[in-house]
Amino acid sequence: MGNVATRLLSIVLMLQSKPHIKAAEFAAELGVSERTVHRYMAMLDEMGIPIYSERGPYGGFSLVRGYKLPPMLFTAEEATVLYLGANLIKEMWGKAYRDAATAATAKLDNVLPDELRRQVDRAQASLAVCGLHRFNPTVWETYIDDLRRCVAERRQVWMRYRNFNREETERVVDPYGLALQWGLWYLVGYCHLRQDVRTFRVDRIQALELLEATFQPPPDFSVREFLATMTRPPEPVYQVEVRFNPDVAPRVAERRGAWQDLTEHPDGSVTVAFPTANLDWPTWWVLSYGAAARVISPPELAERVRQAAEAVVRMYTSEESNSTSE
């Protein structure tokens, strides 16, 4: 019945935007037969929706002039999407949109019929999206609302920013947009200090001041496309192959990503292969499995793993010697 209700609503919305729609057009749009369309029209008539039809080349189905659907008419699925969306906004933005999200759901509570509310409550109780941010949103709540306002009003900002190496600089930035990536909020904008478009982690901003000066972003600039370009991995230089013992093979197979090729062997072991631009993180990834992982290629990776393992052994050997001498 859910699909039928959605189709009936779609028919009314189509008739509101365009009169004199033929049964064949409805059938093509809804993916049903013309006979089914006529059955839907009969159902709408029984529901009191004032639809009439005219024959001839310029005829078709139309709504009685002046009829409009109530402003808030949702299916259970649509209402659930709105509630879940409001809750996601509260989790991602913190207090910046908390009041607006609460007000939006309160309005939905007031207009939804009781039965529909019960369906939505059941859906919300069984659907959950958690852990969208790695940190408590209070780490960026101090500045996120001001940044959002400056993006909308196209106002420059002054900020004192601390980078990854904990070096602080003062900058004037034209804020083009805000983006949530990997559980963190980033500001994308033109940095007047570096004379280039840069990204800034909002939780690393130490001080912020809204300026009166305004700016115009490039007409063809897209925050989404810029971030996609920035996060695109460099061209691979190495082809890595690592073989894992049978005791860890199930864990490796379960955690493999789309960037990996995995081959299973008769003895229960697996070989993982993937391209990479550098050997830094593969070294520590292999070491995390200890003696259960063996590098097949490239030889440079095997050598780095060997040197790192020997350094760990030397460190613990030195500690044991010091404790014995004491």
Briefly characterize the structure:
By secondary structure, the chain is of the alpha+beta class. Helices cover 45% and strands 24% of the residues. Helix 10 (280-287) packs across helix 11.
How would you explain this protein's 3D organization?
The chain is of the alpha+beta class. It has eleven helices and eleven strands. Strands 6-5-4-3-7 form a five-stranded antiparallel beta sheet. A four-stranded antiparallel beta sheet has the order 9-10-8-11. A two-stranded antiparallel sheet has the order 1-2. A hairpin with a 5-residue loop joins strand 9 (261-264) and strand 10. The mean pLDDT is 83.
Indicate the mean pLDDT.
83
Shape assignment? extended
The helix-strand sequence is: HHHEEHHHHEEEEEHEHEEHEH
Percentage of residues in DSSP E strands: 15-25%
CA-based gyration radius: 30 Å
Largest sheet: 5 strands, antiparallel
Number of strands: 11
Count every helix, treating DSSP H or I runs of 4 or more residues as helices. Answer: 11
Structural class: alpha+beta
- Low confidence ranges: none
Note the gap between the termini: 80 Å
**Strand numbers in spatial order across the main sheet:** 6-5-4-3-7
Assembly classification? single chain
- The percentage helix is 40-55%
Features:
326 residues, alpha+beta, five-stranded antiparallel sheet, 11 helices
Write the layout of secondary structure elements.
Elements: H1 2-17, H2 23-30, H3 34-46, E1 51-54, E2 60-63, H4 76-93, H5 98-111, H6 114-126, H7 138-153, E3 155-162, E4 168-181, E5 184-191, E6 196-201, E7 205-214, H8 223-231, E8 238-244, H9 249-254, E9 261-264, E10 270-276, H10 280-287, E11 293-297, H11 299-325
Antiparallel strand pairs: 1-2, 3-4, 3-7, 4-5, 5-6, 8-10, 8-11, 9-10
Helix pairs in contact: 2-3, 4-5, 4-6, 10-11
